Amino acid sequence: MNAATLQLDDVSRAFGGIHAVEGVRFTAHAGETLGVIGPNGAGKSVLLNLINGLYRLDRGSITLDDTRIDGLKPHQIAARGVGRAFQSTDQFKDFIVRDYVILGRLGRQARSMLTTALALPHVRRSERAERAVALETLERFRLAEAAEERLGDLPYGVQKAIDIARVIATEPRLMLLDEPTSGTTSIERSLISDVLHEVARTDVTLVVIDHDVSFISSLSERIVVMNVGRLLAEGTPAEVLARPDVVEAYLGV
């Protein structure tokens, strides 16, 4: 599948009297890597939740290749090639790593409960193929040795790398990554950075939230800066990080 173009127009969402996201407009072009930065509470994670359907918009629109996706359910948006990695994998801690990666490909596994229960030959072939894809993806992260481990038994940073592997295994057109380097060691951060640079060279659009400015700057072609729910700045990493208002909002200087 080809990389998707994501467009947000006047996207807004409030919780009670708090405007978590207010009037945000930007476009992530097909094949582009767009970084999203901002201080805690800026609305970055809420923004990703709006894009992949976990939250509903109060106002505005979100389109994927000129087709509106706001109002769709998360699984419907995922079926259009949108993959999402989360800050935490706690809810999946009892999964075996290989099975967790395969879980991300569930939408590609066309089968019925009856054929699965009967373990027909084409079902067994499909299962072998899915295991092969999962192991190949883990190998890209140098994580194949963890394939049979319980997810919750692994270091936090390794869990995050595995979650990104799950998204990559879905062969997405658009990847949404929420703080991929948070809580990681320098070695894990380097591993994640290497893989995402490799992914960025393929036919996929990346939208990445992270607090590590060096990581975001090296990975992203453009950066969007959010502050108190609003868009503060947009441009190349050099342009954005040179702005005094960005330095004040993001770095507190």
Overall pLDDT metric: 87
Helix and strand element order: EEEHEEHEHHHHEHEHEEHH
Judging by the overall fold, what is the CATH architecture of one domain?
3-Layer(aba) Sandwich
User: With helices defined by DSSP (H or I, 4 residues minimum), what is the helix count?
Assistant: 10
How is the topology of this model organized?
Elements lengths: L5 E10 L2 E11 L4 E5 L6 H8 L7 E6 L2 E2 L5 H5 L3 E4 L11 H7 L9 H6 L2 H20 L15 H14 L4 E5 L7 H15 L4 E5 L3 H7 L2 E6 L2 E6 L1 H5 L2 H8 L2
Parallel strand pairs: 3-8, 3-9, 6-7, 7-8
Antiparallel strand pairs: 1-2, 1-4, 4-5, 9-10
Helix pairs in contact: 3-5, 3-6, 5-6, 6-7
Summarize the structure.
By secondary structure, the protein is α/β, with parallel strands linked by helices.
